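From the pipeline queue, job 12 of 40. The input is one protein chain; the requested action is below.

Action: predict structure.
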Amino acid sequence: MFKNATFLLSASSKEHFPDLKTEDGKDIPEVAFVGKSNVGKSSLLNHLTQNRKLAHISSKPGKTRLVNFFTLDDKLALVDLPGYGFAKVSKKVRSEWGELMEDYLNERQNLRLILHLIDARHLPTKDDLAFAEWASHFERSFVIVFTKADKLNRGALERQCRESLALLAETTHGTPSPYITYSIKDAKARVQLMKEIKLRIGWD
């Protein structure tokens, strides 16, 4: 069912967030994608849904300035949030994006799972750690997804993940972070992430 994703809308304010419900009136569960602006959110979305044109991939980070909603057979929604840590934008614009993210993350009733994307090649940034602390404090269900895993050999990837997870645990006061490694060149990673999503939102 992850192959039937379609773009729904882009929201510039919480008033534009869609009222997503199933035919029997239940909230359609949403999975949010969060991470810094060059972490590979669009590439992962396209790989997960097997649709190269679903999310626009830009050569310049920070192009996602809205909250983008994608639906899958009206049973699940994927939500692409603006990347944090972006450069070459004004403080005003950065503040507006931050407020838009907070409106979604704090108030959205449909939100069931957050996929927190972190570049496997680098240790978590201050923004990464701050977001992990927020998600842990408010007891949001989230999974760390270490992207671009194919850029490291197996040994280096394992070491980098251990160091990153240690920093994340320190930030979240010892709370362990569930995680997976992901590469858009690895079909097994796609299957693993699909299983993780279904497990976390309570699907059979």
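Job complete. DSSP finds five helices and seven strands in the chain.
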